[in-house]
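Build the 3D complex.
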Amino acid sequence: MAYSDKVIDHYQNPKNVGTLDKADKSVGTGLVGAPECGDVMRLQIQVDDATGIITDAKFKTFGCGSAIASSSLATEWLKGKSVDEAVKIDNMDIVEELNLPPVKIHCSVLAEDAIKAAINDYRVKNGKEALKFEESVIH
Amino acid sequence: MLKLPIYLDNNATTPMDPRVLEAMTPYFLQHFGNAASRNHSFGWQAEEAVDYAREQVAKLIGADPKEIIFTSGATEADNLAIKGVYEMYASKGNHIITAVTEHKAVLDTCKHIEKLGGEVTYLPVNNEGLIDLKELEAAMKPTTILVAIMYANNEVGTVQPIKEISAIARKHGALVFSDATQAVGKMPVDVNKDGIDLMAFTGHKMYGPKGVGALYVRRKNPRVKVTAQMDGGGHERGMRSGTLNVPGIVGFGKACELCMLDMEADTKRVIKLRDRLETALLLLEEAYVNGSREHRLPHVANISFKHVEGEGLMMGFNKNIALSSGSACTSASLEPSYVLKALGLGDDLAHSSLRFGLSRFTTEEEIDYTVKAISETVIKLREMSPLWEMYKEGIDLNTIEWAHH
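Done.
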């Protein structure tokens, strides 16, 4: 199976690899997946409390090229968005942007889950209620 | 000069030796006859070529030429052996013993036998991939007609103690079948010394052409018979009908002859290269050899690089290096290799594995290039791996509650 050029580009030049201080109140961390399943994503957002805008996003991913590309793309999309806008990122947008084949759709689902987990972590840390999301399709 | 891409997936298939192709060419255009045509020179030539190849094949495994049944490959030979014995010896019993690390061609054939009402015991393996002889002995029953254990495993290269296995089977009056696809041509295999009654192997894993293989069927002590699985002209002593693939068989024969001729030199070279590769890659932190290092094919290494995922790892160099991984990220099931899991590897380590299969054409330059490319990619991906970060921080990954999906 050949990867799309966009997946290859994200794999070779991943954007925003790194770690934010998860103890920081303005940082939300989402850790999803499992080593046994062959992919684990950790996605972090830094939020400006005053504006609710995501000022920074970082990821680290254990997984195939599509998983790495999905999380790299997610961090790019997150930066500059408000938390409310970020919630709306849909896994199918990632599938479309990266031309993921059907067997790799779960990588995009994982990225969407990671975004939501990071947002909820941020919300809970700041005294807000965690948002409830529908169960992902593939889980 | 290093030529890219480098091919290190020789357990999947080998390139053909040019000497094999040379032997085959006349049998496509000039000597195209049907080996079963008895009344003209075209047929005679083809038959003569097949007879010669049969001798070459038999010689490599210490068999008599009459004991070689040509097939389309090892999968067909596996099917013919297991189903053929099950049908032929139905009056004697219906129990077959095999192992969990067998190739799918054996495992799925055994599942088929179960559907037909047969009984199959799947022996587990230890962390090196070896079956326990005591468990084999304990599994033997009066109804056991066949013990089907592979000679060497395709994923980790573990070589089973076939001699000991066949001694136990014989003591209990059962036949011994071995899928020796990965072993024949790579290490000395002798059906008599090893006590094998039926054995499957194929041309394309030993520098021969694809689409041609053989089933060895013992003719003496005991005389073994299998029920044909394909009806037709009664070729191959009635056990496998179908016009013989003459050019393929000629190539297979030549490949066997070359393996026999070059085995000692090839083995020495390939072990040196494999060890060079392994030693260099094990310098990386948290890198582990899977399977047995002692009882192993000379050209195989299976290594896990903890905290990086195999498919992601291969993507770092698969334009230039051809390998395979025990990670099954591409499969719909997301299940990693059942062989590695049977060895007791956690799914995480199974997902992190690469399988190296060297060949007689592998060079030192290729190995050095591979070591460099893999080491760099492992280091790069670990920088990107949350698991590696946690490991480095001293967090026990088993204490984390993962969201399984």
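The longest strand of chain B covers residues 300-305.
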